[in-house]
């Protein structure tokens, strides 16, 4: 009696495996597309590659008429696609935080450089002596503006890449200004006239 009850269930399972699992493959493709839209290619690379690989294996299994394997790979691809989308959201948030911190630190260094340039001007350092430093400050400011625009556009990794080495360059210029100021000869004291 029990064998007869199990027989219809076995027939349903076999029937389900007798044709390609198009519904599951479509669901997996949708999960992968959502992960791609979330930035998984950049922010969750390993999980995204695993999902696309599982989907390709599902297609390969369909071509070989191994529909049970195709179903298994399609379900795996769907789960991995969803995981990649979650990882991408976390990775994107972390990349944004890092890029914003880099921008803030670089901007603070640039402000210090501009303050040192003003101090050099107050110490009567010539414009010619400050020419290279001003050019470097202007270049750093341009890169900083570009990085801010990249963050606004959601290009967090690109923003961080743009600023690589900029802050250390600014710090080098601050040291250069300090050396220029220190190298200036001290002005001789004014001689007092007979009536002073």
Notes on the protein architecture:
The chain is mainly alpha-helical. It folds into two domains: 20-90; 92-183, Up-down Bundle (Butyryl-CoA Dehydrogenase, subunit A, domain 3), CATH 1.20.140. Helix content is 82%, strand content 0%. The chain is built from eight helices and no strands. The protein has helices spanning 2-16, 22-37, 40-43, 45-63, 67-122, 127-152, 156-162, 166-183. Helix 5 packs parallel to helix 8. The longest helix is centred in the middle third of the chain and has 56 residues, at 67-122. It is rod-shaped, with a radius of gyration of 32 Å. Residues 1-15 have low confidence and may be disordered.
Explain briefly what this protein structure is:
The protein has 196 residues and is mainly α. It has helices at 2-16, 22-37, 40-43, 45-63, 67-122, 127-152, 156-162, 166-183.
Topology, element by element:
Elements lengths: L1 H15 L5 H16 L2 H4 L1 H19 L3 H56 L4 H26 L3 H7 L3 H18 L13
Tag the structure with descriptive keywords.
82% helix; 196 residues; disordered N terminus; 2 domains; Butyryl-CoA Dehydrogenase, subunit A, domain 3; rod-shaped; mainly alpha
CATH topology of the largest domain: Butyryl-CoA Dehydrogenase, subunit A, domain 3
Q: Structural class of the secondary elements?
A: mainly alpha
Q: Please identify, by name, the CATH architecture of the largest domain.
A: Up-down Bundle
Strand content: under 5%
The number of E-state strands comes to 0
Could you spell the SSE succession in H and E letters? Answer: HHHHHHHH
Q: Counting H and I runs of at least 4 residues, what is the number of helices?
A: 8
The main β sheet shows up as: none
Q: What is the typical, i.e. mean, pLDDT?
A: 88
Question: Radius of gyration, rounded?
Answer: 32 Å
* Multimeric state: single chain
Distance between the termini: 127 Å
- Total tally of structural domains: 2
Shape: rod-shaped
- Regions with little confidence, pLDDT below 50 for 5+ residues: 1-15
Report the top-level CATH class of the largest domain.
Mainly Alpha
The helical percent reads over 70%
